[in-house]
# Entry
Amino acid sequence: MTEAIKILYINPDIDSLNNFQNQLSEKYITFIAPNAADARIHLKNHPDIPIILCTEVLSDKNGIDFFEEIRCENPWALRILIASSTGANFAIDALNRAKLFRIVQQPCSYNDIIEAVTEAIAFCSNPAHLLSQYKELQKGYDELDKFAYSVTHDVRRPLLSILGAVEVAQSLNDIAEVREMLKMMEESVRSMDDFIHNIHQYYKLKHLKFQYEEIDFNEIINNQKEIFHLATEMNNIEFRSVVKQNQPFKSDKMAITLILNNLLSNAIKYQRKNNSGKLVEAAIDVEKEAVFISIKDNGIGIPKQHLPEIFNMFFRANSEEVGSGVGLYNVKDALLKLNGLIKVESKPNYGTTFTVTIPQNK
Amino acid sequence: MSSQNPNFIIVDDSKLDCFIAEKMICNAGLGRNVKSFLNGTVALQYIQANGVSDTEEKLILIVDIQMPVMNGFEFIEAFEKLPEAIQNKYRVFVLTSSVNLNDINRAVSYRSVEDILSKPLTTRKILDLVR
# Structure
């Protein structure tokens, strides 16, 4: 690397900070902060800092929490925790949550810190590390490309349909035909609105920090029932739900709602039109460690060859119904952030069952 | 080439777009027999089963590009694998809302595709096809 490497060091001990800066500022661009708030200011001004060291204890925050928080905005920074706690459980939790590069155990000498920094610098300049960064970038770029393509298509297409319909409607004399036309125009407007809504959710998932709070699954399911009330009534769909929650569950409400809303919306949308016993069943079981959700329908099902693709962005397996191809992608994205799992079982003409497991966020 | 009463086949996953196409063809005074398909696979089966016509009259086949399951390109590729006698019965046009040059270039590159029509379909565009 030709450019000087930037390093951020966060430690409430001012002496240690000054010492660090004196020793390293000749070779590297160093930033120091006594607390998380100051560190955030540095990261805001220099989002490309590749190496961050932080002590476990800060005046305003736990170091692991801090790392976990900045992971989204600075995914490539190598995070080194200077830990005062000990034990395997602590280390595993810290590694998992903060996705650490290294843990330096306190009490540590100045040399221990330098050694960790040196190792991180070597890793930064490693072609393999650069390659993985490049791959990440390429992935983002491809997604953006697909995104731009799809946005033009998915937004323009219903607009052009409506434009064509307006023209046709002007030549119609039969009011019944005009009404039929209006109904189809309404569908076009709805599909466009759905698409924009999904894109908004996509954006929120990518950029908003999760807020962990207690989740009342009865409340969420009842809200969903209300949202889908009209759709289930109109299409004669029975919506059954069983919620077993005897203990509090902490997670991000927006993400949980998004997952349930998308899965239920699909279950309601992809029904067999002539089936007399259309059924959607939601089962939620809150256990101590995780919540188990199953959304089952007896609808059209998904052909086996499409199952691996349903979570891909802009993929649509069905041509009869209006779908944006973003819903299940968002579900997967939300679950990825919650460390959750999703499984799908489906048989054409029998129905589809999605099972979701989300671990509790403590 | 031109014919007084051409038949039309529309392949488009949007119900509204099929309806618009049918109406536009009707309004152009050509709508004797318009058949719409929301799904390319079903349209292909129909074309195959319909076989070879006994008249000289060619059918106009209008295909949308962006469709789920089987998109317009896949449809045209499958169409070009049908027996030549069946293919010769059709004049194929691609109908699209795409502004993407790659899509448009790809569509015109197919041997069987006569031209590209941009959405929305109008009576004018329909009349130009049979002129």
About this structure: The CA atoms of residues 225 and 239 of chain A lie 8 Å apart. The two ends of chain A are 40 Å apart (CA to CA).
